Amino acid sequence: MPKSSMPKVEVAYATAEHQWLMACDVPPGATVREALHLSGIAAQIQGLDVEQCPVGIFGKLVADAHERVVEAGGRLEIYRPLLLDPAEALR
Hints:
Structural class: alpha+beta
Number of domains: 1
Number of helices: 3
Distance between the termini: 55 Å
Largest sheet: 5 strands, mixed
Strand order of the largest sheet: 2-1-5-3-4
Order of helices and strands: EEHHEEEH
CATH topology: Ubiquitin-like (UB roll)
Mean pLDDT: 88
CATH class: Alpha Beta
Number of strands: 5
Low-confidence stretches: none
């Protein structure tokens, strides 16, 4: 299959010090988890487990990233665990 017919998605991840935004071609029918693996982002970020991390598409949490199929132009956002409960931070 020619690359031009493969859907393109973006993969985003950020820490307090750095942010990553990568474009990635994925085969039609690829799931969110497959797209994360194909992006190669895990090789760039030590300790990032793309198999287990919470992920969203355009700010909406994906309930089952192993089943959800990505769409062309989608932005996959990898979320980090909260270090402090927001309610506790307000107190």
